[in-house]
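User: Can you recover a sequence for this backbone? Please restate the input before giving your answer.

Assistant: Of course. Working from this structure:
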């Protein structure tokens, strides 16, 4: 999503919502855009909450609101929303834990990132996200100085990457990360 003009996206979605004020999907899209602009987290949370008012069973709205809460530093509220998403759709566990793990990684909470990425793997170890999970967990482990474990995760991500048509981490990136861990 980098390179997008989020203010323009928000303006377009706001115009669409004037015509369709009860469109939960539009609210979620606008909420997602708000998470990318300075000062937008409260607006994002409002949009996700409104989407949930329209459809209290919307797993995506719970997960996206949880994401916004993490970015805002309200981890307890995020955990509550992720728990509700998992309650509504246990099959979404791997994705929910992956999303929260990556979000925690992005804001520098590496221990929480690792814990949630572990839960993602435990909930479905053979899911299509596994290469990305191992890659992100390896990066987080590296950040906290656990280089041997990080190298193991990069090795596993490389092994799984060979099975994927679309790769989040290139083989070259994973090999470089692994080499850096082995050199430390």
């Amino acid at each position: 999503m980098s390179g997008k003009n989020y203010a323009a996206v928000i303006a377009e979605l706001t115009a669409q919502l004037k015509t369709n004020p009860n469109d939960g999907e539009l609210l979620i899209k606008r909420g997602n855009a708000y998470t990318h602009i300075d000062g937008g987290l409260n607006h994002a949370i409002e949009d996700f909450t409104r989407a949930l008012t329209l459809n209290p069973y919307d797993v995506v709205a719970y997960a996206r609101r949880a994401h916004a809460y993490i970015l805002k530093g309200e981890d307890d509220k995020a955990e509550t929303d992720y728990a509700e998403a998992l309650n509504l759709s246990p099959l979404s566990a791997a994705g929910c834990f992956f999303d929260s793990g990556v979000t925690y990684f992005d804001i520098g909470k590496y221990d929480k990132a690792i814990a949630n990425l572990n839960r993602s793997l435990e909930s479905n170890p053979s899911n299509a996200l596994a290469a990305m999970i191992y890659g992100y967990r390896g990066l987080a482990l590296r950040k906290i100085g656990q280089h041997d474990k990080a190298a193991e995760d990069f090795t596993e991500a490389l092994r799984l990457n060979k099975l994927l048509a679309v790769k989040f981490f290139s083989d070259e990136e994973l090999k470089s990360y692994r080499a850096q861990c082995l050199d430390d």
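That completes the design. Residues 147-161 form the longest helix (15 residues).
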